Amino acid sequence: MKRRARLGFFLLSAAAFAGVYLWGLKGLPPVGHYRGPYGDVLNRVATYERHVTDVVTAVNFDYRGFDTLGEEFILFMSVIGGTVLLRRQREEEKSERRDESLADQSPERQAPEPSDATRVLTLALVGPLVVFGLYIVAHGQLTPGGGFQGGVVLATAPLLVYLAGNLKKFKQITSHTLMEVAEAVGAAGYLAIGFAGLIVGGSYLRNVAALGTTGMINSGGTIAFINLATGLEVAAGFVLLLYAFLEQTLEIRLRGGK
Amino acid sequence: MSFFPYLVAAWLFIIGLYGIVTSRNFVHLVICLAVLQSSTYVLLLSIGYRVGGVAPVFVGVKVGTPAVDPVVQALMLTDIVVEATVVALLLALALQLQKHANTLDPDKLKALEG
Lengths: 258, 114
Description:
The complex is a heterodimer. Chain A is mostly helical. Helices cover about 70% and strands about 0% of the residues of chain A. Chain A is built from 9 helices and no strands. Chain A has helices at about 1-25, 40-50, 55-65, 65-95, 115-140, 145-165, 165-175, 175-200, 220-255. In chain A, helix 3 (about 55-65) packs across helix 9 (about 220-255), helix 7 (about 165-175) crosses helix 9 (about 220-255) and helix 8 (about 175-200) runs antiparallel to helix 9. The relative contact order of chain A is 0.14. Chain B is mostly helical. In chain B, helix 1 packs antiparallel against helix 2 (about 25-50) and helix 2 packs antiparallel against helix 3 (about 70-100). The longest helix of chain B has about 30 residues, at about 70-100. At the A-B interface, helix 1, helix 2, helix 3, helix 4 and helix 6 of A face helix 1, helix 2 and helix 3 of B.
């Protein structure tokens, strides 16, 4: 009965939502007939004002930089929360109070060794992937990309090492204190660049660095630096989460188990 | 066609919410939340779209070429990455729940326990 009542309440709410939504649609322009004005203004001025060619990055790390700072700290806190939640688990495991439900359900099943092809391919890809990630982070002001995208690309590199079956190396890379430091430095870097704007230019996150030549990698002033800080934080944050989730399996397999 | 993406957004929102309301498993619930959230992507990108507009990346584009709205794209971009970590946080919560309550079914949860 409780489920049915809940479903009834949902249907009622959904119908009300659909009504209000359709009513609201009447006030929106049809898709493809964007009316502006903010996007048009930015598209017109961003290249001249900030010497960037990718306006999306300019919006993210300059015009809307303060909002992105907030979003970045949502990311920061989620990573902290995730790692803290999963860390308690490790202590419990140490105190031999391991929950049976979390143990491997089929201890007789062996995890297959990765094939030679997987090993060669993944390890060969690690280098190019890191270079590609750094390229994406560094060229955010020129082409689509930046700290968020590049950071995620960088964070997949240790995953390739894991896929190659090199568990020791994976643990070395991901469980490092350096990752935690990198995440903190990335988050603090964004804040610090904001304060640099406050001290030099009089307002928080003001673009105070030299703007450089449009189309060159040194263009965009502080946008490039904020991208680097964000890239560092995103990459380190994702790697921390990766380790937090894989840790238990990793410990068992490194002990020579399944 | 001119209003179709808006309806897709509404559908994603409602189907995601339906999944959350009727969910019997917290992992399923977290994924439903991700579906629900993706409705905002469709909605905002549709609002910023312009027929014949180029991407707001001005490399080798003539001055005066109409482009789509960069603001909504910037919103999406950060949100996608942030969402991934939030989903990770929620899944970590689900993992803890399985450990402490030995169930992932929201209906089987009893009153809060210290």
